[in-house]
Predict the 3D structure of the following.
Amino acid sequence: MPVITCIDDLKRLHKRRTPKMFYDYAESGSYTEQTFRENTTDFEKIRLRQKVAVDMEGRSTATTMMGEDVAMPVALAPVGLTGMQRADGEIKAARAAAKAGVPFTLSTMSICSIEDVAAHSPAPFWFQLYVMKDQDFVDATLERAKKAGCTTLVLTLDLQILGQRHKDLKNGLSAPPKLTLPVLLDLATKWQWGLEMLQTKRRFFGNIVGHAKGVTDASSLGSWTAEQFDLKLDWSKIARIRDQWGGKMILKGILDEEDALIAKDFGADAIVVSNHGGRQLDGALSAIRMLPRIRRAVGDDMEIYMDSGIRSGQDVLKALALGADSTFIGRAFIHGLGAMGEKGVSAALEVIRKELDVTMALCGEKNVHALGRHNLLLPNGFLDEYS
């Protein structure tokens, strides 16, 4: 087993071991990819304040998310096509998350179904919903998530219209992949991925095929998804989903102070400051730049999470210090999954946990709840460069 010391180690293995179309799906953004790049480069601009001669015994990264005890302020974000990065990928990620003591969030666009993950995960998980035009499908999906014991609903708000991702179009992204000559040549070098995929029956979108009206195979799935994202999603529809769900709900995809205030007045249990990993509105500000603005707007009495750009425990610390209560990671765990399956996800989580713990100590803090602006040094104008 290779020595893994950072997420980049896993990223390199992921690229080597996973078919190009699925690696590119994970490691890309929309249009020019400006926002995708700045999600990470803006983190690099933030510096840490070192503190010494502080008692560092008894440190803890533990906290809570949605009232649940977690080992660190990190949840696995919903990522579509996770089961194409590695066979049964959602099941493997859910198991690793449970072992690490952090939440796993299953995407509507997962390969393994809600029922598959529930049958194989040692702990309850969260479910992420995309709102479709087919109301019967939405209603049935919510009922399936309830029946499976999902404890929290994560409602994604920033994907009514799909941002164009050039690599996906050029690669002919599909699940399972269409066996064109370029794909076959690529798969010939990814034999371990292929062998594992041959041993599973889970190769389609498990929450849609056989559940959505008229979708029985891959050919009918493509036309259904192209037409189904609900362009009319508004706060009245969100209220209907909230009432039908009847449990804890997170609104994901907030990147504007006004929207955050509406979400607060709406009564959301939490929001996720996110630009969908730079995969939707290219040219938007990075999530880490918008986080402090949104925290100032809503005050301290609302739970705020953040995703988009987090690749390390230091990034987690910086997000907490700028106002997040916790974070979501997507690409970081996907790199682990694509690299080494369940062990890779566990490795990614341990890398982040250890780096968060060590960095917290070197900043003179013993508890994640003590982190704040005093732990950081920001470049002049970082918080108000854009207005």
User: Anything to note?
Assistant: The chain has a mean pLDDT of 95. The longest helix spans residues 331-362. The longest strand covers residues 248-254.
